[in-house]
Recover the amino acids of this structure.
């Protein structure tokens, strides 16, 4: 019999669809439709949503409307946990002017991806993030850190755990409040997840400060999530409809679908405070309104059951 004693009683689902999910889709959504998506996600009970990115519009054109989107979401910014990705000082200035209360910075565990994604070295990108994190924290903002390529890199292969933890230590020293560990190309297995979390233990970084961010390229996202939960992780990133990928790593496919994650969590008796039916309605609405391919196996199966 499966021993559930090691599972958390509650999990925070961190929705990344409006930012990470949409950045790599071929369809560029109107700002009003993005705002409606976020409002529907809030209505379904998603407690944390990454809504925008303040990168250069020519680099990620799908997210070029960050200021306009946040203006439409202004009433929600003070009452709900909403974050925006910032790459540098200019991005932070724009985010603060837009009224966000939480920002995110995006680091890499590997030199190859740092060059491809950030046009910098690992050390050079961390030097840029340091003052950004400090200023944000001094202003009372929460700062979420991401590390990409935590398990494998399309150019460098398997990533050593110490590479990841070295970057993590630097980000925590600068003042981040939470760190999301990204399996950017979806190659991790449950054993890899346990090994990486053990490596964090050796450096004294508490698992309560960590989140996981899995892609489902090899079909391992849910099994990796369950492993992380059993290992003490209580924050999991996911994307509505399984949307997303990475424009700088072509082997990366969609994120773990929020619908699939909630189906698993509720099946385990884990509390999320998310209304599953409203979430499915949002998923269906998104597919119908945009033509985007909904990759959630749960959403597809339940839709087929109703035919």
């Amino acid at each position: 019999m499966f021993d559930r004693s090691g599972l958390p009683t509650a999990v925070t689902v961190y929705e990344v669809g409006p930012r990470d999910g949409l950045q790599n889709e071929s369809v560029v959504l109107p700002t009003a439709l993005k705002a409606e998506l976020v409002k529907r996600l809030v209505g379904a009970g998603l407690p944390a949503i990454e809504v925008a990115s303040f990168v250069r519009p020519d680099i990620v054109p799908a997210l070029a409307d960050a200021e306009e989107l946040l203006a439409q979401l202004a009433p929600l910014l003070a009452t709900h946990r909403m974050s925006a990705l910032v790459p540098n000082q200019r991005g932070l200035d724009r985010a603060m002017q837009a009224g966000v209360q939480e920002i995110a910075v995006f680091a890499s565990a590997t030199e190859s991806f740092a060059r491809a994604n950030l046009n910098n070295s690992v050390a050079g990108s961390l030097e840029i993030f340091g003052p950004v994190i400090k200023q944000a924290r001094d202003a009372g903002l929460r700062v979420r850190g991401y590390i990409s390529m935590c398990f494998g890199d399309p150019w460098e292969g398997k990533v050593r755990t110490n590479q990841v933890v070295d970057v993590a230590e630097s980000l925590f020293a600068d003042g981040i409040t939470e760190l999301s560990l990204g399996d950017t190309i979806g190659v991790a297995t449950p054993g890899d997840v346990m090994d990486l979390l053990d490596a964090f233990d050796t450096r004294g970084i508490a698992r309560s400060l960590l989140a996981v961010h899995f892609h489902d390229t090899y079909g391992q996202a849910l099994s990796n999530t369950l492993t992380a939960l059993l290992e003490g992780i209580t924050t999991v990133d996911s994307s509505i409809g399984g949307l997303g990928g990475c424009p700088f790593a072509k082997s990366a496919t969609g994120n773990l679908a929020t619908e699939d994650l909630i189906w698993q969590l509720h099946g385990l008796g884990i509390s999320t405070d998310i209304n599953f039916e409203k979430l499915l309605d949002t998923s269906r609405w998104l597919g119908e309104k945009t033509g985007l391919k909904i990759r959630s196996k749960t959403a597809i199966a339940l839709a087929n059951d109703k035919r």
In short: DSSP finds 13 helices and ten strands in the chain. The chain has one domain: 12-305.
